[in-house]
Write a structure and sequence with these properties.
Length: about 300
């Protein structure tokens, strides 16, 4: 597949797209990227690309004729043409997958206070934003889009297995990862990961991913597996009326502990998540990593245990 990026700052885009995984993918011929200077199509000796707005007002507006001339040099019948601007459709993983199936994606980077609305009205297929904040220009957005799409192309990542497992391909966030040393500055890894029991590891990861999702991105959380109905009498006896299953501040605010995984349940996860639920195991306690005093003696040792998997 091929990307063409039309921008007033081609050097801004060229560097990142020639580096690291994307640079290697391009060199290996897995996809192509062209960066084109919109100013090359500017008017007159000064290569003017913008003008004052009709109707008055402050700021400059990028000219439609300049954008049209630049687009004409790269556009093909099968091209999908995008304009990056803060008021566009929100870019997400579904759009990345959609674009990865296109043979040719052209990205026009919006700039200045605005771009003549006829670009949006007549020249592009989609206007795309990468989030609810305002950037000085669409270049970072174009890089985000190329990166998110290119890594989905066969061979670019090298390890296609990680694609299937990651966040957003499955709904919700990914489970936390750990590697050696097993103990670092007194920070332990979850014991279950060195148990050698693949079933318990899988169950722990499943619940850890759910706990992180509930804490950090409750909007992405999947419904919990259904617990068997409990009689009112049984609920009174155990003192669990179900209230502890409701989201609390501890579940919707991401603490340092949520992010490093140390607030994740360990004991209840010895059982499968279903069993833990039936036993009425509640959500992780609202314990923050920074509440704990640092271990005085640093126990950073070279660990002999190989990380499982
Ligand atoms: Cl695509 N452009 C600009 N200027 N700001 C943005 C954006 C795009 N997406 C989020 N903020």
């Amino acid at each position: 597949m091929r990307f063409d990026v039309l921008t007033l700052f081609p050097e801004m885009v060229e560097g990142p797209l020639s580096t690291s995984i994307l640079g290697r993918g391009r060199e290996a011929g897995l996809f192509e990227v062209g960066c084109h200077d919109l100013r090359a199509h500017g008017l007159g000796r000064h290569k003017v690309v913008d003008d004052t707005p009709y109707g008055g007002g402050s700021g400059m507006v990028m000219r439609v004729d300049v954008v049209d001339a630049a687009l004409a040099t790269v556009r093909r019948p099968e091209s999908r043409v995008l304009l990056t601007e803060p008021s566009g459709r929100r870019f997400d993983q579904a759009m990345a997958r959609e674009l990865a199936a296109c043979p040719h994606v052209v990205i026009i980077c919006g700039h200045y206070e605005g771009i003549d609305a006829r670009v949006r009205e007549h020249l592009v297929d989609d206007c795309v934003s990468i989030g609810d904040y305002v950037l000085t220009g669409g270049e970072y957005a174009a890089m985000v889009i190329v990166d998110a799409v290119a890594r989905l192309l066969p061979g670019v990542l090298g390890n296609e297995g990680s694609l299937a497992e990651e966040s957003f391909t499955r709904p919700g966030l990914e489970y936390p990862h750990y590697t050696r040393p097993r103990t670092y500055r007194g920070w332990e890894i979850p014991e279950v990961l060195v148990s050698g029991n693949h079933g318990r590891v899988a169950a722990w990861r499943e619940e850890a991913a759910r706990a992180r999702t509930r804490a950090i991105r409750p909007d992405l959380a999947l419904p919990e597996p259904e617990a068997p109905p409990k009689s009112r009498r049984a609920a009174r006896r155990t003192g669990n009326d179900g209230a502890r299953d409701l989201p609390t501040k501890a579940h919707t605010v991401a603490t340092a502990a949520d992010l490093d995984g140390s607030a994740l349940p360990t004991e209840s996860l010895d059982a499968t998540p279903g069993e833990a639920l039936r036993r009425g195991a509640g959500p992780p306690p609202p314990q923050a990593a920074h509440d704990a005093a640092p271990t005085p003696q640093v126990r950073a040792t070279l660990d002999e245990d190989a990380p499982s998997e």
